Amino acid sequence: MFNLNLKQLLISLVFSTFTIGILSLLTYKLNLGIFLLASFGATMVLLYGYPESPFSKPKNIFFGHLITSLIGILFLKFISFPIYIIIPLAVGLGISIMIFLNVTHPPAGGNPIIMISGGASFEYLLSPVISGSIILIFLGILLNRYVIKNNYPN
């Protein structure tokens, strides 16, 4: 019933822990800024569990997180509807733009919720969205290609 791939399980466990650990260290121990975004946890599922997925491509990770975060912040700052209206509108628009631009990254679909609920500012785009995404992509390429020996990104 269960098709357990022990290697995939261990790779996901170790490298997701390591990658989020680096972002946590930068954020909480070294106080270099904010590098964590809740949706980065879901990105780990794709980056290390399913790196062959088109949703795992570096361009999808980077632009998916950037676009949906920007849309969330724009709605928060410039659309004066109640929060229960702007959240679904921002999520829907973010998803449609990712699909239109061929940079769909499912974990990024939640970013407008994070941005609006958290009251994020435009500075949040630089840190954690851009800086965190770059670190995720760098570690994803490094670990997938040189440690696991996956052809990532393919």
Chart the SSEs and their pairings:
Layout: H1 6-29, H2 38-49, H3 58-78, H4 83-100, H5 111-118, H6 123-147
Helix pairs in contact: 1-2, 1-6, 3-4, 3-5, 3-6, 4-5
Summed up, the domain count is 1
Spans where pLDDT lies below 50 across 5 or more residues: none
- Summarize the main sheet: none
The secondary-structure element order is HHHHHH
How far is the N terminus from the C terminus? 30 Å
Number of helices: 6
Strand tally: 0
Structural class: mainly alpha
Architecture overview:
With 154 residues, the protein is mostly helical. It has one domain (6-137). 70% of the residues lie in helices and 0% in strands. It contains six helices and no strands. The protein has helices spanning 6-29, 38-49, 58-78, 83-100, 111-118, 123-147. Helix 3 (58-78) packs parallel to helix 5. The chain starts with 5 loop residues before the first helix and ends in a 7-residue tail after the last helix.
